[in-house]
Write a structure and sequence with these properties.
The protein is 83% helix and 0% strand. Helix 5 runs antiparallel to helix 6. The longest helix is centred in the middle third of the chain and has 39 residues.
């Protein structure tokens, strides 16, 4: 019990930990608002306010986060030319997303002209979508490489080598789980971004947005939870 509490404290001490918790509030309230809108309008209004407040607070909390793209490129530029190119494109898209998200937030709270909100939202979502597409491609390449490496290790012989290989295989499997979680989160966020770029009945449906938001939040929750 104490171990779980300690991990929760560590998780909530992270910027991403708080973001995933508030994102859960945002999309749970979106789904509840949709569910009770016709039958309980008063309750629906309260959950709508919670959804809006959560969304705006997340934007405020992400102030300056566009700079993390530089740090991501510095720490992990990619092991091959293809992965380096994908890293540049994905982080550039994410930086555009977070940078223009600042102006979207300021326009929605009334500091900037409210008429800027739609344009800033489009640019931010477009950068977000581009970034996620390249993040997903890079993760699939690395997943494929991991499977290939695991297969080669499995074919190795010798007891001592086998024990050493098992440790490497376990590391590859752990990395695979994290990358699959990243793919799930990025696909979910891509759906949300597409709903803003090109509104359509599928992506813009409340259930689609709500489930996508929760998948992204909980996949991120898993990835950031202390081991």
């Amino acid at each position: 019990m104490n171990d779980r509490v300690d991990k929760l404290v560590i998780f909530l001490a992270k910027r991403d930990g708080i973001d995933k918790l508030v994102k859960t509030f945002q999309y749970v309230s979106k789904l509840v608002n949709w569910k009770v809108e016709a039958t309980h309008p008063d309750i629906s209004k309260r959950f709508k306010q919670w959804e809006v407040a959560s969304g705006l607070s997340r934007k405020a909390f992400r102030t300056g986060r566009f700079l993390t793209g530089f740090n991501g490129l510095r720490r992990n530029p990619g092991s091959t030319q293809t992965l380096r190119l994908l890293a540049v494109l994905s982080n550039a898209g994410e930086m555009v997303y977070f940078f223009f998200d600042h102006f979207l937030w300021l326009s929605r709270i009334g500091t900037l002209d409210a008429n800027l909100a739609k344009k800033m939202s489009y640019i931010s979502a477009f950068g977000e979508a581009v970034g996620y597409v390249f993040f997903i491609i890079a993760d699939f390449i690395l997943l494929k490489e991991g499977l290939k490496e695991e297969k080669q290790l499995r074919s190795s012989e010798g007891k001592e080598k086998s024990e050493e290989n098992e440790k490497v295989i376990q590391r590859i499997r752990n990395d695979r789980i994290m990358r699959l979680m990243a793919v799930a989160a990025n696909v979910a966020d891509l759906i949300i971004a597409l709903a803003e770029i090109e509104p359509n009945p599928l992506c813009n449906h409340t259930i689609s947005l709500g489930i996508s938001g929760l998948v992204s939040a909980w996949a991120g929750w898993y990835r950031n939870w202390p081991s």
